[in-house]
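Subject: Sanity check before I submit

Could someone independently write out the structure tokens for this chain? I want to compare against mine line by line before I put it in a report. The sequence has 125 residues.
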Amino acid sequence: MQKKLIALVVAGLAASPVFAADTSVTLYGLVDGGIAWRGKNYDSSVGSRSSVDSGQFNGSRLGVKGKEYLGSGVKAVFQIEAGIGIDRGSSNQGTTWGRQSYVGLETPSVNVSVGRQYTPAFYLY
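---
Independent answer below. Compare away.
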């Protein structure tokens, strides 16, 4: 019995790349930091200071996104993205996945997704 179970597991592991052939998962990110100097006129209660700050031009982020082909032109999609502060290593939004976080289906004619997403106005600016 044990030999049959081991043979089944080995066969399943050998066949797994066939099932994952139409799957793409991407780990991505952006690190944005810089040296900042703030004089006394920035805030009267704080003296001048220099520091390494996160998000000088864009927010630093770390995310995972992927697609899997389901057949008949339909793809399952997902994306989770977190804003991170490189100076403290903390979340910039207060929630772990404070940026885009969604799941959905894509077809050649219609895309449907649910979750935290950019609004159409975001793409106008």
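---
OP: Matches mine. For the report I'm noting this point. The chain has two helices and seven strands.
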